[in-house]
Amino acid sequence: MLNLHGNQIPAGGLGWGAHLRRDFLEMPLRSTVHARRFGQVFALLIFLAPFVPALEPTADVPDLGSRAAVLMDAATGTVVYAKNGDAPIPPASLAKLMTIHIALQEVEAGRASLDEIVELPPESWANNQPPRSSLMHLAAGHIVSLRELILGMAIPSGNDAAVAVALRFYPSVEEFVGRMNREARNLGLAQTRFVEPSGISEENMTTALEFAEFCRVYISRHPESLRDFHSVMEFAYPRADNVAPAYRSTVGTWRQRNHNTLLTRFEGADGLKTGYIDEAGYNIALTAARLETRLIAVVLGAPASYGGDRIRDADGTKLLTWGFSHFKTIRPPEPELPLPRIWKGKLKQVELIPGEPLVFTSFTDRGEGLLWETVLEDPLIAPLSRGSEVGFLILYDEAGELRRIPLVTATDIEQGNIFKRAWDSVGLFFRGLFKPKKK
């Protein structure tokens, strides 16, 4: 498995060493000394960071009992730990996160409402679910909203709720599963596939790395779901308003606790989902936020035996504790970039923008008093198309370089007329005569 540098990640995990190289380019660039100290930033940028400093194993990499695990920075997609990250393992009830994701997509597109009442066909009733199913306890005649069905998946992990949601949006469960798989392909999850929406089948498949990336997308697109669904501790169903008036005096309400016990045992934890089937063992997708950093931990394949859930939870706790001890997300504000001279163009200057997101993952002890410097090609000669890479923005602190971001042109720069090109050619000739020679 590779990190974002294309380097191999050790099976036991990946940590960051104490030194980062600060290699300045050997190409004919000039260092435009625009060093500035960054101030505080409040904007949350959620992107995949294309650059991560070289990483070295640390001495205290967690030793996990589960078959596979990944720890990822939610803001940047940086993988800081991986154990068998590409091993295919059934997700079990983690599959319900994809079912919820599609339902929330439909709500956001205006094709559904969280407060609408959802029809419950017989396939969704609790008594028609496979043996040993986790249940919301849907039954014939119940009056239930889409919001309640999502809570029924997120908290008690109801397989009946997953079927009800699938049939709300498609004529058959099979067609809804087709949508799940198309969404997985759209997100680039090559090894993730589904055969039903609840996760009970061992034929559903994912990897720790792919599911961590899915969780990153899920959180970025539905941030309110952490508060509204995944960190809710208890779900009571059915209540009096879920049954016909004749039965409201005798309704039997099931009160079920959230299976993710780390919500109350790990500081900052606010999601996401647990899962279990015999063929996979105990799984969990965890997320927690502290200060400006949110981490995602996916643990798959804790032993399918007595105590396996405790091993899963211990592994999740180890990963997040280690992650917050070693890493943080740095979100620099937009820097004030120079307007470089353009030769032989209709315009004399061009606006520059960062070609990649500024947000990046760093050591916990790095990034204070952040400075920046621009390194630009010289000369810049028209024509230049929008997005042309013309240099770098280098972020560094007192210990050295932290991140190097390409700088690109914000607009197209067309060639000037023949007189402009001739005049600038003369200027470049004399500029070259008097330019200091490299030693």
TrEMBL record:
GO terms for biological process: cell wall organization; peptidoglycan biosynthetic process; proteolysis; regulation of cell shape. It catalyses: Preferential cleavage: (Ac)2-L-Lys-D-Ala-|-D-Ala. Also transpeptidation of peptidyl-alanyl moieties that are N-acyl substituents of D-alanine. It comes from the Bacteria. The keyword Transmembrane does not apply. Keywords: Carboxypeptidase, Cell shape, Cell wall biogenesis/degradation, Hydrolase, Peptidoglycan synthesis, Protease, Signal. Substrate binds at K273. Pathway: Cell wall biogenesis; peptidoglycan biosynthesis. Residues 327-415 form the Peptidase S11 D-Ala-D-Ala carboxypeptidase A C-terminal domain. Its EC number is 3.4.16.4. GO terms for molecular function: serine-type D-Ala-D-Ala carboxypeptidase activity. It holds the Pfam family PBP5_C. InterPro entries: Beta-lactam/transpept-like, Peniciliin-bd_prot_C_sf, Peptidase_S11, Peptidase_S11_C, Peptidase_S11_C_sf, Peptidase_S11_N. Removes C-terminal D-alanyl residues from sugar-peptide cell wall precursors. Belongs to the peptidase S11 family. PANTHER family: D-ALANYL-D-ALANINE CARBOXYPEPTIDASE (PTHR21581), TRAFFICKING PROTEIN PARTICLE COMPLEX SUBUNIT 12 (PTHR21581:SF6). This is serine-type D-Ala-D-Ala carboxypeptidase. It comes from Treponema primitia (strain ATCC BAA-887 / DSM 12427 / ZAS-2). The lineage of its organism: Bacteria, Pseudomonadati, Spirochaetota, Spirochaetia, Spirochaetales.
